[in-house]
Amino acid sequence: MLRYQVRGDNIEITPAIRDYIETKVAKLERYFSNELNANVYANAKVRKNGEQKIEITVPLKGLTLRAEEVNSDLYAAVDLTVDKLERQIRKHKTRINRRSREKGSINHDLLTNELESYEEEKHEFVKIKKIPANLMSKDEAILQMELLGHDFFVFLDEDTNEFSVIYKRKDGQYGALELER
Known about the structure:
Layout: E1 2-9, H1 15-26, E2 38-46, E3 52-60, E4 63-71, H2 74-103, H3 108-116, E5 135-136, H4 138-148, E6 152-157, E7 163-168, E8 174-178
Parallel strand pairs: 1-2, 5-6
Antiparallel strand pairs: 2-3, 3-4, 6-7, 7-8
């Protein structure tokens, strides 16, 4: 069963919008053989230029599906976002199917169930880099990140004395990740 949390930033989420999002996302359940037990987080925003952005996140066991889309029509943005989520699911299932074929046997029920109990793939690291734990402010970290030409920067935050990550968002703004214990 999918549980929905639909929020709006600068937009009122009407029952029609909520129903449309729930109906569209519910179609993704056909990709799961077992009863799906997950939360769906949908966030609709109206940008300054009038365009509407929809973000949908579906955290599953071992896998998080997430997509976002911007369009002048909120309903079209929902359609495009759900299409992206569907492509992610199909791509993941293809990867599982291919891995299963390489092992020599195909069990379609197992493949469908494996999406929910996804085992991490073994990734090969091509480079491991040690970085100094420099104590600095977020502004200093942004400056350092820009000087290095990176999209993110790990540092020891002088305000919290904890490790943090500063990153550059797609919209050109900055974001911060702070560890939670």
